[in-house]
Amino acid sequence: LGRERAPPARGMQQSGHEVPMSPAWPTLEIPHWRDTRETLHRDAQIVGKLQLATTPRVSHFWNVALRMTARGLATAALSHDDRTFDIELDFVDHVLVVRSSEGERSELPMRDCSVAEFDAELMDALASIGVRVPIRHEPVELASEAIPFREDRQHHVYDREWVGRFWHALLQSERVLAAFRARFVGKASPVGFYWGTFDLCAARYSGARVPHPPPGTIEREAFSHEVSEAGVWPGDARYDQPAFFALHAPTPEGYAQAHVEPAGASWCAAMSCFLLPYERARTSASPESALLEFFETTYAAGATLARWNRDELERHAA
């Protein structure tokens, strides 16, 4: 990945907001890293469950999202008993790092390793700095085999090159999502990585509560208010390729038939959202422009059909 570089950043104007040009976006052909994707998804869930167990619930479960760093994905500063610690999945050196406020540090190499081994090694690393956090060692929100972590020896592949490619795709996507989020002055989530669904996304809210939110603890909290959400996702068994997505919930009548851009974006009935294949965006003349167009047109379609007060909620360029 370090070999893939674009010309120096020039900057790009889009709707009055400047977005720096990014380095080349890496390819993410699923046949080359499907097994790694499935293993990494489960490993990230173990880390995420530690954050879930040690942070108070925030609106729409924003507290569970892992944050982007210059090296990978990390938890917030977590507190348990009298200890403060954090965990980082470092995708540069391919190590998992556990740090405490007392200066203690433990590292685990990220490598071909079963989910069961990863789970045990991470818990041992936490215990070595005096942290023992009880979690449910079971995966959530998976479209494929939901094997308890401590029994999962089926998922064990970790390919450094493809993890690095995925990480760089997240980095580029985060920059565009951050610029898109900045155009909204209403209630909006931070850009965060949600380990349950394994996506990086940002959400906008109209402020209106949903009269009858969907059942289930996660869904009821996530969709308690009208929301427009956009992000990037590496795919799963339902749609086995990476894609950018955009949804509006509750889905207003006519949303699935809305005209959105760029070419290649389409409605996915199975997932109730619009999808833009990652490869289609990556190979466009300007991936940044293509993404902003996708995020903007899907949001505008949903917000207009749902009668959001767009004049009050959107930031208008000077």
- Round the mean pLDDT to the nearest integer and report it: 91
N-to-C CA distance: 38 Å
Oligomer: single chain
Number of helices: 7
Main sheet summary: 6 strands, antiparallel
Structural shape: globular
Q: What is the topology?
A:
Layout: E1 12-14, E2 17-19, H1 30-54, E3 67-68, E4 72-74, E5 78-80, E6 83-90, E7 95-100, E8 105-109, H2 115-128, H3 160-181, E9 192-194, E10 199-209, H4 217-222, E11 225-233, E12 243-249, E13 266-268, E14 273-277, H5 278-282, H6 287-305, H7 310-313
Antiparallel strand pairs: 1-2, 3-4, 4-6, 5-6, 6-7, 7-8, 9-10, 10-11, 11-12, 12-14, 13-14
Structure in words:
The chain has 318 residues and is an alpha+beta fold. It is built from seven helices and 14 strands. It has helices at residues 30-54, 115-128, 160-181, 217-222, 278-282, 287-305, 310-313; strands at 12-14, 17-19, 67-68, 72-74, 78-80, 83-90, 95-100, 105-109, 192-194, 199-209, 225-233, 243-249, 266-268, 273-277. Strand 6 and strand 7 (95-100) form a beta hairpin. Helix 1 packs parallel to helix 2 (115-128). The longest helix is centred in the N-terminal third of the chain and has 25 residues, at 30-54. Mean pLDDT is 91; it is low at 1-22.
